[in-house]
Amino acid sequence: MIDNLFQYEFLQNAFLTGIIIGVIAPFLGVFIVVRKMALITDALSHVSLSGIAASLLLGKYFAPFALLNPLYGGMAFSVIGALLIEKLRTVYKHYEELAIPIMMSFGIGLGVIFISLADGFNTDLFGYLFGSVSAVSRADLYVIILIAVLVFITIFLLYKELFLLSFDEEYAKAIGIPGNGIHLLFVITVALVIAVSMRIVGVLLVSSLMTLPVAASIRVAKSFKQAIILSVIFGEISVIGGLVSGFYLEIAPGGTIVIIAATLLLGTVLYKKFRYQKS
Hints:
Helices cover about 85% and strands about 0% of the residues. It is mainly alpha-helical. The protein has a domain at about 10-200: Orthogonal Bundle (ABC transporter involved in vitamin B12 uptake, BtuC). α3 (about 40-60) crosses α5 (about 70-90), α3 (about 40-60) runs antiparallel to α7 (about 125-130) and α8 runs antiparallel to α10. The longest helix has 30 residues, at about 140-165. The termini are far apart. Its main location: membrane.
């Protein structure tokens, strides 16, 4: 059975990509949840879809753009969206949370326009919307590896600063940590991870992969580092389980990944409740 699973290159690409995303998405998700920015994943995923739709639209009318991987368009739009969110946070200083729904609305509206100009959904857009294992190419895998390296370098070099900014931003700034610059670098990193994760789980589900494993881990973790480790473990179980189930049961892997993650969350909630009642 295992041989059948890995006999095709696109399945090898999908599993390697899934394993990497299963690590970096929940890894960043811990910092996102602690900083109460969970909705930014939804906003940037919709902005990414606009970039992909724009890239496909340009490829329809201009031959050079047809050779360009639409994933790059999604990454570009996602990063621009992250930068605009940060700008809006400075404009609405007393209502910073408004920046995320504003960008989400803009991303959805722009995406609808591009999709309508392209005469509706096509196979490529559906793949990005719900995830498509067969669409993961070797080039996509290399891009995801590069972004994963960027994520690990960023977290390794700035772990202490990100930790302090996540739990006490005012204190962090008071001791000289450049909060704005580090936060900007962090959201750009998140934007890139969201864009590349769409290949596996899709636009509508990518936020789930960054939040559900984290929600499960914080129910049982006893420290921040333990929450990171458990989030990655839950993320990997969800991704690998979803891809294997999707292959053998011939169902959408993106949806299966999210259902497994939700089941793990439910399991931790029930476990915590049982432990509380027993004690």
